[in-house]
Amino acid sequence: MKSSRLFSAMRSAPCARVALTILLATALTACVNKVPDPGVSNMHSLPEPEIKVVNYSLVACEEIWDVPDNKVMDSSLYWLRAIDCAVRLSPAEARAQARLWPADDWQSAFKQAMLMDNGNETPVERRQYLQRLDGFIGDYPVPLRPLIQLWRDNQLAQLQLSEARTRYHHLQQSSDAQLDALRQQQIAQNKELVLVRRKLQTLTDIERQLSSRRSPDTSDNGHIDKNGAAQGDSVAVPDNTTQDAPQP
């Protein structure tokens, strides 16, 4: 109550207004001149880290394989550029370049593997260089392990796809052979059926000819039998009459 009355009284008088303005200005100056927190000031004064990233995309593919700095081998950007350069080679060039890198360490084994990946390798060759690369699994730098693992998974997927295609090719050859055998069997059965039909037709014709020849012979034999029977009866009657006549 008293403070509200005091402010109302100061607002009513001109001198009071001036005093109020000076009081507010002093309070704002005190806020501006306040000493900042040491933790905040130290945070703003930390030096910015210097990060130097080499743009390996500007390095020529002819020079990317012979980089002498061992620190470069730990950079995933370097290996991404190497993979890109390996893809640009022809199969013959990739194989020739792969022969220059014997698998003595993980770097050489990885270079050889990525070059052979573009050299039209067989599934046996792909499995071999993956096994050589797995022999250095304990030597991989930690920053490169995700990249190498991803690249290796891609190789395994291609190997599985190649094996699936080989199985499909064998199944297709087996199916084609079975279908061809069934066609040959059907052709042979059709030929045999045609021969059987011809034989049946021949037998039918022969039977018709025989039946046509037997019909008149049978009628003639019937007439002969009747005439013979009649003549026999006429001859037998006189013989019986003569035998039954009384003797004188």
* N/C terminus separation: 202 Å
Task: Provide the β-strand percentage band.
Answer: under 5%
Helices, by number, come to 9
Number of DSSP strands? 0
- What best-fitting shape do the alpha-carbon axes yield? elongated
Major β-sheet annotation:
none
Instruction: State the helicity in percent bands.
Output: over 70%
Instruction: Find the structural class using helix and strand composition.
Output: mainly alpha
- Could you name the ranges where pLDDT drops below 50 across 5 or more consecutive residues? 229-248
Q: What does this entry look like structurally?
A:
- It is elongated and about 150 Å long.
- It is 75% helix and 0% strand.
- The termini are far apart.
- It has helices at residues 2-12, 14-32, 38-44, 61-64, 76-88, 91-98, 106-116, 123-134, 145-244.
- Mean pLDDT is 76; it is low at 229-248.
- α1 packs across α2, α7 runs antiparallel to α8 (123-134) and α8 runs antiparallel to α9.
- With 248 residues, the protein is mainly alpha-helical.
Give the SSE map.
Blueprint lengths: L1 H11 L1 H19 L5 H7 L16 H4 L11 H13 L2 H8 L7 H11 L6 H12 L10 H100 L4
Q: What distinguishing features does this structure have?
A:
0% strand, 75% helix, 248 residues, mainly alpha
Give a short summary of the structure:
The protein is an all-alpha fold and 248 residues long. Helices cover 75% and strands 0% of the residues.
